[in-house]
Amino acid sequence: RKTEAPCRETPRRAPFRGLSAATRGSAGLDLAVGVDITIVDDSVHVVPSTVTGPLGHGLSALLIGRSSASKQGIMIIPGLIDSDYTGQIGIMVRILNPPATLHKGDCIAQLIPFRAHVIKSQDRERGDQGFGSTGPNN
């Protein structure tokens, strides 16, 4: 089954190396799948993207699905990428009508960047830990 078209490549430069918006008015930066993968069930899978953190000093991002992916039954579970995350950004994917093959470079998600203003935080580094690494009740 056909999936998303590949993302457009742009020169790698900070803070969003290799990411581009589809138009001048786009709020999101297209995020591509980093590996070829066939998903054969409807559970949530973490698929690596082509991007690693950090996004840039003080920059965080919401990770959401592209409407074109949703239209094809490729559901992206929203996530938050913190400014101090240094690992590979994973995309949480659920396929409504499996199986589906995602190819390296397919654009299925987007990052909505923003500057986070946290009033008070604990003095610890996130590093490359994600998906619940700061604890269930923090």
From TrEMBL:
Record keyword Transmembrane present: no
dUTPase-like domain residues: 20-135
Listed SUPFAM superfamilies: dUTPase-like (SSF51283)
GO terms under biological process: dUMP biosynthetic process; proteolysis
Gene3D superfamilies linked to this entry: 2.70.40.10
Keywords: Aspartyl protease, Hydrolase, Protease
GO molecular function, one term: aspartic-type endopeptidase activity
Pfam families membership: dUTPase
Keyword hit for Protease: yes
InterPro entries noted in UniProt: dUTPase-like, dUTPase-like_sf, dUTPase_trimeric, HERV-K_Pro_peptidase_A2
Stretches of the chain forming a coiled coil according to its record: none
PANTHER family the record matches: GAG RETROVIRAL POLYPROTEIN (PTHR19422), RT1 CLASS I, LOCUS CE15 (PTHR19422:SF123)
Protein name (record): dUTPase-like domain-containing protein
Organism annotation: Otus sunia
